[in-house]
Amino acid sequence: MGIKSLLPGPLGFGTAPLGNMFRSIPDEEATATVEAAWNQGIRYFDTAPFYGAGLSELRLGEVLADRPRDEYVLSTKVGRVILDELEDPADRDLGEKGGLFEHGRANKMVDLYTADATLRSIEDSLKRLRTDRLDIVWVHDVAQDFHGDDWLAVYETARTGAFRVLQNLRDEGVIKAWGLGVNRVEPIELTLDLDEPKPDAFLLAGRYTLLDHNRSLQRLLPAATAQDIDMVVGGPYSSGILAGGRHFEYQKAPADIIAKVERIKALAAGHGVSIKAAALQFALAHPATAAVVPGATRPSRIAEDVAALKETVPAAFWTALRDERLIAADAPTPTA
Predict the structure, then answer these.
(1) How far apart are CA 137 and CA 67, in angstroms?
(2) What is the H or E stretch that residue 224 is in?
(3) Active-site hit among 77, 97, 176, 276
(4) Among residues 4, 27, 44, 51, which one is catalytic?
């Protein structure tokens, strides 16, 4: 169990923005960003069919096809099948994430978590990524934010379909690890309680950040640690608001979140700390965290992420965050 030995380091590259998340990104800019990640030494790349209806996978695959396959770790996701049929991306029902990829490809996306759909999704991803194998496969978005009150039924389909297929593929050596890739803690908590199948890790986006971590600390992370199941933290900048952006939870940030970020930034500035360093190092401080995978669409952002991991953050800064109740009292920090 666990994937820390599989991953090449604590910093990966999350490629959701390459699917034209929030805006239409020129191909040249997307390519330059992936190349910058490679040149900065990043060797773990995470993607998904959902990101722009295959656009992220296509763009990532175009760059990585020229790199030695044994030199990087690649993860993608299952749960959505991309069809040749076209639709208006702006009209898709994405639950709480409406309009997220309205600038992506127009290929129709269908939610399918069955065994057959899982195998088809993997085959399609391999073609788009121009590779012969995947290292990690995540079951994508089996949670309430996308499926509303039907999410438990969707989860059950995935449990008897996608979960078992991926466990078999791992046991056969076709993939090296599997788990869930979600924005909510509930499906992970359910999965941790299963006798079988047993995942190796989880990718949890947005739920272990400076802005939102209390729920994860209560049950999920202690249980994962006890079972030796690793966590990959997605969205460490909370959809961008912690890195100079305007979004939180993939939507325009509300006033209370903006105010909280300003308080964190003020403390960071007072201690000579960059907000990116605070965000990344906080997420990595928990013993269950194997890696963080921030996203980017501009090459310069990659260098900032790499520098943020190397930055020295004084213990007094974390103490100040606790004193101001901006992080939980029991949240691990790099110097505590």
Answers:
(1) 20
(2) helix 221-226
(3) 77
(4) 51
Known active-site residue 51: yes
Cα 11 from chain centroid (whole Å): 12
Strand 80-86 and strand 107-111: the pairing is: antiparallel
Amino acid in position 131: T
178: its two tokens: 């599997």
Q: Report the sign of the C-alpha dihedral through residues 24, 109, 98, 278, in that order.
A: negative
Per-residue pLDDT tens, the chain, 336 aa: give them: 789 999 999 999 999 999 998 889 999 999 999 999 999 999 999 999 999 999 999 999 999 999 999 999 999 999 999 999 999 888 888 777 777 888 999 999 999 999 999 999 999 999 999 999 999 999 999 999 999 999 999 999 999 999 999 999 999 999 999 999 999 999 999 999 999 999 999 999 999 999 999 999 999 999 999 999 999 999 999 988 998 888 888 778 899 999 999 999 999 999 999 999 999 999 999 999 999 999 988 899 999 999 999 999 999 999 999 999 999 999 999 975
What are residue 178's DSSP bridge partners?
137
Q: CA neighbours within 13 Å on the CB side: how many for 224?
A: 31
Structure tokens at 77: 């996701």
Distances (CA, A) of 124 to 53, 101, 120: 12, 19, 6
Q: What token pair was written down for 46?
A: 């995470």
Q: Which uninterrupted H or E stretch holds 138?
A: strand 136-140
Contact 177, 247 (CB under 8 A): no
Q: Which letter does DSSP use for residue 292 in this model?
A: E
R_g of the chain, CA atoms, integer Å: 19
Distance between CA 242 and CA 52 in Å, rounded?
Answer: 23
The reply to whether 176 belongs to the active site is: no
Q: Both tokens of residue 315?
A: 């213990």
Q: Is 250 a catalytic residue?
A: no
Q: Among 4, 27, 44, 46, which one carries the catalytic annotation?
A: 46
Q: How many CA atoms lie within 13 Å of 156's alpha carbon, on the beta-carbon side?
A: 3
